[in-house]
Amino acid sequence: MSVRIQPSSQVDETAVLGEGTTIWDLAQIREEARLGRGCIVGRGAYVGPGVKIGDNVKLQNHALVYEPAELGDGVFIGPAVVLTNDFYPRAVDPDGRQKRGGDWEAKGVVVAEGASLGARSVCVAGVRVGRWALVAAGAVVSRDVADFALVAGVPARRIGWVGRAGVKLVQREGEPGVWGCPSTGALYDEKEGVLSERA
Fold first, then answer.
1. Rounded to an integer, what distance in angstroms lies between the CA atom of residue 124 and that of residue 111?
2. pTM, whole model, 2 decimals?
3. Neighbour-count burial of 5, counting CB atoms closer than 10 A to its CB (0-12 exposed, 13-18 middle, 19+ buried)
4. How high is the mean pLDDT in each 10-residue block of the chain (199 residues)?
């Protein structure tokens, strides 16, 4: 399976694209970005310099992934999602001089394996979204998100748990701390605010 790149996209010659990856119209992949196998980069999406993306990742149309973000395998980035990289964004310094690349330190967002970010959500510089977590559409993530957490709102707060299928988990009747997936039947244990899969 070869890489598919639409003619209207811009892929820097130093970027590395895994086998079976597709880059759609008007997408831009910057220098030294690394995309794994089987990725899909939608129309108008942006991947910054040096960004690291795992296998089977989907970036929907107009998603903006600024450096030095890292996305694990199987991550879903919805339409118009933004992963920021600057704690103190300014166009100029206190003296009015235009800021350049060396005038600030980029801090990337980390999105762990299987996590999904809903349409138009924003992740603030430096946050980590845990494994298989789900960020609701329009949410603003300003602090780390736990594995399997379902977060929503501005700022985003946990409103439940999700399993690998992305379906909201249901607490098992008469079994405190035990959650089940209505879709797959998989069980999860919650202890001190941490959810883990049963073996």
1. 12
2. 0.95
3. middle
4. 94 98 98 98 98 98 98 98 95 92 90 98 98 98 98 98 97 94 96 92
For strands 187-191 and 194-197, give the pairing.
antiparallel
Would you list the domain boundaries of the chain? 1-162, 163-199
User: Length of the chain, please?
Assistant: 199
CATH 3.30.2170.10 fits 1-162, yes or no: no
Q: What is the pLDDT of residue 102?
A: 81
